[in-house]
Amino acid sequence: MIKHYVDVDVRWTKEGNIIPTAIIWESTDRKERFEIMKVLSGPRHMASRAGGVGKRYEIQIGKSKRYLFLEKDKWFVESDK
Fold first, then answer.
1. Which of 9, 10, 12, 4 shows the shortest CA–CA distance to 24?
2. Going by fewer Cβ within 10 Å, which terminus of the chain is more open, N or C?
3. Model confidence, pTM
4. CA-to-CA separations, 3 to 12, 24, 27, 37, 38, in angstroms, rounded
5. pLDDT tens track for 51-70
């Protein structure tokens, strides 16, 4: 597994919690925005398969469930490629 760093739009609550609302995925030829339909769980502290420690959110984008990670001040998703 490798880390694919992404831009993430977030909403801050008055309590100081971070709620991710969208992922912006960049490839060499385009940029795509994926709205997060629901945060299913998180944040949980983790050590990802790609290495590192931080917070893990389980999110739903469309019909797909994914993990979104916040490592220090960078967001990433795990990818096979």
1. 9
2. C
3. 0.83
4. 25, 15, 14, 22, 22
5. 666 899 999 999 999 999 99
